[in-house]
């Protein structure tokens, strides 16, 4: 599957927004980069779907611009004025060319979901490869009001239970894309989270 991080050139803070091109060309998160619509158009003239991992500002700031430009249906777990399809845990969703299971993974955000296929993991902010806090297995921050390290730990465990062996591509909301043994990265993230390591010095 052809996947592009369309916010890779952002000069301001944003999430990674991933364009998965295939049978069902899908944007996973919209990001906060002002030129994201043009970046998407560098690869495709149309979108079949926009899927949100969660609705923190860095993931949805440019959502209206994307929806206005491409008139694509919006899939989200949490309520949103422009949501066309409500996601629930256990749904199956075609992203690009891969059938993904929707896994409800709160802790960093109450409406957080991850997308898992036989080959790929779109993990949002629940687990990342490297983000400046930890390398080779990190996890979403949980030090803001409404967030929960305990719930995040449960979500990572659930993700491991639901993720098949052989997943080789991890597209996370921050940090770099990872290609290799994704399960090992997620297990390291879980170990760090369970040891209650503070993600940031002031946490």
From TrEMBL:
SMART domains per UniProt: Lactamase_B
Q: Which UniProt keywords apply?
A: Hydrolase, Metal-binding, Zinc
Essential cofactor(s): Zn(2+)
**Source organism (scientific name):** Haloarcula pellucida
Q: Which InterPro entries match?
A: MBL_Glyoxalase_II, Metallo-B-lactamas, RibonucZ/Hydroxyglut_hydro
| PANTHER family from the UniProt entry | HYDROXYACYLGLUTATHIONE HYDROLASE GLOC
Full protein name: MBL fold hydrolase
Give GO terms: molecular function aspect only. hydrolase activity; metal ion binding
CDD domains in alphabetical order: metallo-hydrolase-like_MBL-fold
What does the organism's lineage look like at the top? Archaea, Methanobacteriati, Methanobacteriota, Stenosarchaea group, Halobacteria
Question: Which residues are in the Metallo-beta-lactamase domain?
Answer: 14-174
Listed transmembrane segments: none
* SUPFAM superfamilies per record: Metallo-hydrolase/oxidoreductase
> Is Zinc one of the keywords?
yes
């Amino acid at each position: 599957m052809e996947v592009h991080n369309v916010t890779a050139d952002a000069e301001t803070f944003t999430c990674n927004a991933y364009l998965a091109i295939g049978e069902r060309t899908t944007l996973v998160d919209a990001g906060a980069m002002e030129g994201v619509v043009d970046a998407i158009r560098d690869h495709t003239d149309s979108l079949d779907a926009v899927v949100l991992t969660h609705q923190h500002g860095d993931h949805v700031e440019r959502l209206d611009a994307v929806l206005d430009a491409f008139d694509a249906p919006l899939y989200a777990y949490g309520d949103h004025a422009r949501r066309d399809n409500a996601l629930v845990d256990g749904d199956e969703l075609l992203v690009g060319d891969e059938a993904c299971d929707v896994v409800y993974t709160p802790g960093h955000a109450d409406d957080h979901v991850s997308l898992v296929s036989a080959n790929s993991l779109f993990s949002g902010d629940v687990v990342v490869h490297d983000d400046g806090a930890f390398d080779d297995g990190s996890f979403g921050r949980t030090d803001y009001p409404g967030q929960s390290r305990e719930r995040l730990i449960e979500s990572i465990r659930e993700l491991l239970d639901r993720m098949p062996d052989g997943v080789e591509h991890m597209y996370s909301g921050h940090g770099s894309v990872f290609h290799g043994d994704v399960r090992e990265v997620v297990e390291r993230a879980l170990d760090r989270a369970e040891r209650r390591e503070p993600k940031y010095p002031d946490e």
